[in-house]
């Protein structure tokens, strides 16, 4: 069993939002790895970062992604940093991986003050700029389909993807 599509991209790309609409359009289930991680940890992501640290969050994330990739057949959204793990990038080979791109200005306005995203809590704009530059090659490495999201509605993006899949 494998997901119909796996959505990757930086925070604010719209993985959760577009993924939900895409799953509805394809009439399959939607799953968000961030939600799986919170269920395993028994607390929200900001609390995992505060209580246990980012390394622990990443370990939970690697396990949650590996499990979902082998047991779930709907539309799967990863967290923006999941592709930092070489193990996860390797597991993504052979999957339909959709990279939702977003430029800094749209990402900044979408994540707002970064609430619920502990990495962005201090300085969302500067951190997003760093994350976008650091991760772009990794998203490009795993992607099989790349779709731009700037200035577009989630509905429009989901409809384009539903047509492609
Ligand atoms: N194409 C879009 N245009 C405008 N706002 C968007 C778009 N996609 C997502 N959003 C908004 O941006 C925020 C972040 O979206 P989300 O789906 O959580 O992104 P991700 O899961 O990639 O971090 C949400 O408030 C969402 O409503
Ligand atoms: O970029 C990241 O490292 C993270 C992105 C978040 O998911 P979204 O990309 O859905 O915001 C979430 O997994 C966590 O806060 C870490
Ligand atoms: Mg998300």
UniProtKB/TrEMBL annotation:
It catalyses: shikimate + ATP = 3-phosphoshikimate + ADP + H(+). Its cofactor is Mg(2+). Mg(2+) binds at residue 16. The keyword ATP-binding applies. It is an enzyme of class 2 (transferase). PROSITE patterns: SHIKIMATE_KINASE. ATP binds at residues 12-17, 117, 152. Substrate binds at residues 34, 58, 80, 135. Its EC number is 2.7.1.71. Pathway: Metabolic intermediate biosynthesis; chorismate biosynthesis; chorismate from D-erythrose 4-phosphate and phosphoenolpyruvate: step 5/7. Binds 1 Mg(2+) ion per subunit. One of its GO terms (molecular function) is kinase activity. Keywords: Amino-acid biosynthesis, Aromatic amino acid biosynthesis, ATP-binding, Cytoplasm, Kinase, Magnesium, Metal-binding, Nucleotide-binding, Transferase. Gene3D superfamilies: P-loop containing nucleotide triphosphate hydrolases (3.40.50.300). Monomer. Catalyzes the specific phosphorylation of the 3-hydroxyl group of shikimic acid using ATP as a cosubstrate. Belongs to the shikimate kinase family. This is Shikimate kinase. It comes from Dactylosporangium maewongense. The lineage of its organism: Bacteria, Bacillati, Actinomycetota, Actinomycetes, Micromonosporales. The gene is aroK.
